[in-house]
Design goal:
Layout lengths: L8 E3 L9 H17 L4 E3 L11 H4 L4 H9 L7 H12 L3 E3 L1 E6 L2 E9 L5 E6 L22 E4 L3 E7 L6 H9 L4 E6 L21 E6 L4
Parallel strand pairs: 1-2, 2-3, 8-9
Antiparallel strand pairs: 4-5, 5-6, 7-8, 9-10
Helix pairs in contact: 1-4
């Protein structure tokens, strides 16, 4: 598929609303609408933007109460909240690549979906191998998650990976080999703030990070 000559892409450089599913979905829909008004054809979101990245797993032992709260506020794929995000894609005529913690029967996965401007989910995938202590609460992806490209008419072949998946050559090769043309690189906020001792998502200037690059299809 040959992408349009000019493609306007939005990247959600926004702070999450941690451990709050409804507020996270509200903000996601707001950002989608903002991108749509700006004329974007595609918007990418950071890793686990819904309901925020659980940084507590890096700073303490397993916290049962916080984990239960995180599970409760993670996004189920077949849910009213996902329907709202799909509706926002339709209302704003935009392709949406949300990053979220997926709740599947109370097991969690770092996930992305690709939602078309028609509101249909074109692609779902899970992070193949959670990083380090992420494995204390997140499960692994499986074979179908190697198919991480969505073919979007008028835009191109859109793919993506999460965080340290970008350091794994075989995952990147598998993504490129599918003819990827636009790549959404989703990361959580890992940069320090002004006092250099806390992560950005814990302070007012905190933002999540989502990067994009294009492949030369010629």
């Amino acid at each position: 598929m040959t992408p349009s000559k000019n493609i306007r892409v939005a990247l959600a450089q926004e702070a999450s609303i941690d451990f709050d599913l409804q507020a996270s979905v509200d903000k996601t829909c707001h950002v989608i609408a903002e991108a749509g008004r700006a004329g974007a054809q595609l918007i990418g979101f950071p890793e686990t933007f819904i309901p925020g990245y659980p940084f507590c797993i890096w700073s303490r032992g397993i916290d049962v109460d916080l984990t239960k709260r995180y599970i409760k506020n993670s996004l189920k794929r077949d849910s009213p909240e996902m329907i709202r995000i799909c509706a926002a894609a339709v209302e704003n005529n935009i392709e949406v690549r949300p990053g979220y913690s997926k709740n599947e029967d109370d097991s969690l996965y770092i996930a992305q979906s690709h939602i078309g401007s028609d509101g249909l989910i074109r692609m779902n995938w899970r992070k193949i191998e959670p990083t380090h202590v992420e494995r204390t609460i997140f499960g692994e992806g499986s074979g179908p998650s190697l198919l991480n490209i969505a073919s979007v008419p008028g835009v191109g072949r859109v793919g993506g990976l999460n965080c340290w998946e970008h350091t794994q050559p075989l995952l990147k090769y598998r993504t490129y080999a599918q003819g990827e043309q636009i790549h959404i690189a989703a990361w959580p906020p890992m940069m320090p703030g002004k006092d250099e001792e806390v992560l950005w998502n814990t302070i007012v200037e905190g933002q999540y990070h989502c990067l994009i690059w294009l492949h030369d299809s010629g």
